[in-house]
Design a protein that fits this description.
alpha/beta, 348 residues, Rossmann fold, 30% helix
């Protein structure tokens, strides 16, 4: 049979059908092909997203509770080894730090800064040692070893406690200051009933004469001061010059003063009521005695040798004229200088 070349191709050929199959299957929803779906309404979050968000919320709530809540808040502060006055002052310093602000609360024991507390306490006290330990959930244990106060320094209108080497340990309490005996003429002693003790301050009034009656000064002669009272000469001009931890009195002079304070009453029959140190480079100390005369001692000589010479001068050279005595100078070895009031100086 013969076919004509001009015969028309059928409208639906096998080749064209094979190319259209994929499109037909997609439109018919064949499971082997991806079928486009239209979403109806907003898309809901997945369970994983909801769980993660809930976990963050719960974690933040627990974190806030642990940091700013009560589980780790400091509720107990134990202090051992400190005197009652020192303990009260340290508790006040710690309370101020606990109330302080910051990114994290200082009252939380985890964020409590021990170094900051030690530094702040060191501004008011020169301690032998200070140890702070934190105990969970909310306790501070502080162990304090204080330096012994061996003298009282009157500077800047304040009474400062000195240790045996002449370093400033702390400021004396009102009770300690009241037991120091008569004050220098340029200071005025007043009774402060609301404090329950006597305090001293620089007076702008006229200086009291040296011959003032001891009864008016408020300190009986028979009451021995609890600590030697030390003055600086020259007096510091700027307030705050003498601070805790400073060294205004040289160690040899401080040692001389403490020994003289203990032994003078027994050997001489009267006690020094105050001492004068003349700067950090001085090697001597001036002592004002109860009856008004002065003694000058050197720190470069044994105290016992100097006190022996003083006893000899008072016995052999002064005798009954002690009320007229102005000073005895023992700083020059075996050559001793002494002077009576309204008289030329002599030597023994």
């Amino acid at each position: 049979m013969m076919f004509s070349r001009n015969k028309k191709r059928p409208p639906f050929s096998v080749a064209r059908h094979s190319r259209r199959i994929p499109a037909i299957r997609r439109r018919s929803g064949n499971p082997y092909f991806n079928r486009s779906r239209r979403s109806v309404g907003p898309e809901l979050p997945s369970l994983r997203t909801v769980s993660l968000a809930a976990g963050w919320v719960i974690g933040l709530a627990v974190f806030y509770y642990l940091i700013w809540g009560s589980p780790f808040a400091i509720r107990e502060i134990g202090i051992t080894g400190a005197s009652p006055d020192t303990e009260r002052s340290i508790r006040r310093i710690i309370d101020e730090q606990l109330e302080g602000g910051g990114i994290f609360p200082s009252r939380n024991i985890v964020f409590f800064d021990e170094d900051r507390a030690i530094s702040r306490i060191g501004q008011d006290f020169l301690l032998e040692s200070l140890d702070i330990r934190k105990t969970l959930p909310g306790s501070l244990a502080m162990t304090v070893t204080e330096k012994t106060v061996r003298g009282a320094l009157l500077a800047d209108g304040r009474f400062l406690g000195l240790d045996g080497s002449g370093f400033v340990v702390r400021e004396l309490t009102d009770g300690e200051a009241a037991s120091l005996g008569p004050l220098p003429p340029e200071y005025e002693q007043v009774l402060a009933p609301e404090l329950g003790a006597e305090t001293a301050f620089v007076s702008d009034a006229e200086a009291v004469g040296e011959g003032q009656d001891e009864k008016e000064s408020g300190t009986p002669t028979e009451n021995r001061p609890s600590l030697p009272l030390i003055l600086l000469d020259p007096t510091p001009n700027d307030k705050g010059t003498v601070q805790v931890g400073g060294h205004p009195v040289p160690a040899p002079v401080m040692s001389l003063i403490t020994v003289a304070f203990e032994k003078m009453a027994v050997r001489v029959g009267e006690s020094p009521i105050r001492f004068v140190s003349r700067g950090p480079d001085t090697e001597s100390a001036e002592m004002l005695m109860e009856s008004g005369w002065k003694a000058y001692f050197g720190s470069d000589q044994p105290f016992d040798s100097q006190i022996d010479r003083l006893v000899m001068i008072l016995r052999d050279k002064v005798g009954e004229r002690r009320p007229e005595l102005e000073y005895v100078d023992l700083r020059y070895g075996e050559r001793i200088f002494f002077k009576f009031r309204d008289a030329d100086s002599g030597s023994g």
